[in-house]
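Box S1 | Example of a co-folding query
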Amino acid sequence: MLKIDLRGKRALIVGIGDDQGFGWAIAKALAEAGAEILIGTWAPIVRIFTMSWENGKFDESRKLSDGSLFQYKKLYPIDAVFDKMEDVPQEIRENKRYAELTGYTVSEVAAQVEKDFGKIDILVHSLANGPEVTKDLLDTSRKGYLAAMSSSAYSFVSLLAHFGPLMNEGGSVLSLTYIASVRAIPGYGGGMSSAKAALESDTRTLAWEAGRKWKLRVNAISAGALRSRAAKAIGMIDDMIAYSHANAPLTKDLEAEEVARAAAFLLSPLASAITGAVIYVDNGMHAMGLAVDSASLQKNAAYASKAKS
Ligand SMILES: NC(=O)c1ccc[n+]([C@@H]2O[C@H](COP(=O)([O-])OP(=O)(O)OC[C@H]3O[C@@H](n4cnc5c(N)ncnc54)[C@H](O)[C@@H]3O)[C@@H](O)[C@H]2O)c1
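Box S1 (continued) | Returned holo structure for nicotinamide-adenine-dinucleotide
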């Protein structure tokens, strides 16, 4: 039987803030495959995440297939916008959600993981932030654009630069991207489409560099629409899900678990020859060149019936 077996592997998943997003689902899938899980949670929401965990809010979604509850070995508060403490502005250091924390910059988290555990085998980047995401690109400020780039694209470069030296040979790295990198998706603004384009380009360059330097693989999953906390902030997620239902080859909701299973494969030795790839896990939406539910097609009975099926 062909099996994804990650027993003896240690994975760090950065970008888990609740039980609704891709990061959570990927962490669970890797745990199902036997990996030891470390998680990175955005510093200002660590308290709410750990309180929710302790209060049992996630218990239902923590259930694994053998009936046990998903566990992580350690949680690291992280803000992937900062590489070292000197980069953190005074107002953030003093912000009450940061003031009680230490060691949340990328270099400090890497040093702490090395101290706690030595090496890791798997690194997942499941985070993005674009403060002006609801604005058209033409209305986006330079500051907003660069903030989207920093949080959503450079953060991946920084994570790999700092964790690459701590990764065992044969290790695997993954990020999550979105089709707005290569197609115009009105509503996904603020420079987020640019950040995803950078992330995908970096996936190829980093696959080359980290492959030669550390014998690591680097891939991205371009996921379809999911009603996560981050996606709800964009404000059009329900429309995107409905659009996919009407127009994608597979007319069903995309489950985070479907993305997580593809991630587990890419992060496992089963994918040992796959690197530098962007894999679509989106019910086939990326393959379409025509919106079959377009009002302009509805006079044609063939399209009208297909849009509904
Ligand atoms: N939801 C979708 O429809 C969709 C589709 C394609 C790709 N994606 C991508 O999937 C990834 C995960 O997002 P999600 O939709 O599962 O939402 P999510 O809200 O579960 O995950 C995003 C996480 O990023 C964290 N984060 C934001 N800024 C950070 C920072 N500076 N440092 C550390 N963490 C930070 C947030 O706290 C949050 O936990 C993102 O890259 C997103 O762009 C999402």
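The pocket of nicotinamide-adenine-dinucleotide is lined by residues 15-17, 20-23, 42, 45, 78-81, 126-129, 151, 176-178, 223, 225-226, 228-231 (CB under 6 Å). The CA atoms of residues 138 and 190 lie 9 Å apart.
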